[in-house]
Amino acid sequence: MMDIHQIIKKLPHRYPFLLVDRVIEFEKDVRIKALKNVTINEPFFNGHFPNRPVMPGVLMLEALAQASALLSFSSEGEESDGSRLYYFAGIDGARFKRVVEPGDQLVLESTITRKKAGIYKYSTRATVDGELAVEAELMCTVRAVAA
């Protein structure tokens, strides 16, 4: 549904912080399913942890937030021109259920549960091989960027 070139047009993030590789399902104003391929070349693996590389939980949440922002930007038909950004406003109920390692593919899923006055609430989850890795309720707000 959306390759890396289209994702770059929608999100302001760039290497090494762009954490969504492909969108495989999209339902406007409802849900998105995206992929993050986890490789040993990720810069955070040098220190987390050198003898047992594990993807940091905070980056799994960031990947879910980026997928959620893609859902909202794409639902509104927007591309990232730098005039508006989605910022984290809250994380509730985050639970980590599985370690994510190099070679894993995170399947990122986000569903809009509420949208009001520029604040979005999403129900999110990420799985590896069908096994739950992380789940959380995320809140983001969209704001105009001052020139």
Automatic annotation (TrEMBL):
Protein species of origin: Scleromatobacter humisilvae
Enzyme Commission code(s) on record: 4.2.1.59
InterPro entries in UniProt: FabA_FabZ (IPR013114), FabZ (IPR010084), HotDog_dom_sf (IPR029069)
Enzyme's top EC category: lyase
Gene responsible for this protein: fabZ
Any one Gene Ontology cellular component term annotated for this protein: membrane
Family matches, as CDD domains: FabZ
Catalytic function, reaction form: a (3R)-hydroxyacyl-[ACP] = a (2E)-enoyl-[ACP] + H2O
GO MF terms held by the record: (3R)-hydroxyacyl-[acyl-carrier-protein] dehydratase activity
Intracellular or extracellular location(s): Cytoplasm
HAMAP family, per the entry: FabZ
Active site per database record: H48
Function, in words: Involved in unsaturated fatty acids biosynthesis. Catalyzes the dehydration of short chain beta-hydroxyacyl-ACPs and long chain saturated and unsaturated beta-hydroxyacyl-ACPs.
Family: Belongs to the thioester dehydratase family. FabZ subfamily.
A Pfam family recorded for this sequence: FabA
Record keyword Lyase present: yes
GO BP annotations listed: fatty acid biosynthetic process; lipid A biosynthetic process
Keyword field contains Lyase: yes
Keywords of the record: Cytoplasm, Lipid A biosynthesis, Lipid biosynthesis, Lipid metabolism, Lyase
Protein name: 3-hydroxyacyl-[acyl-carrier-protein] dehydratase FabZ
Domain of life: Bacteria
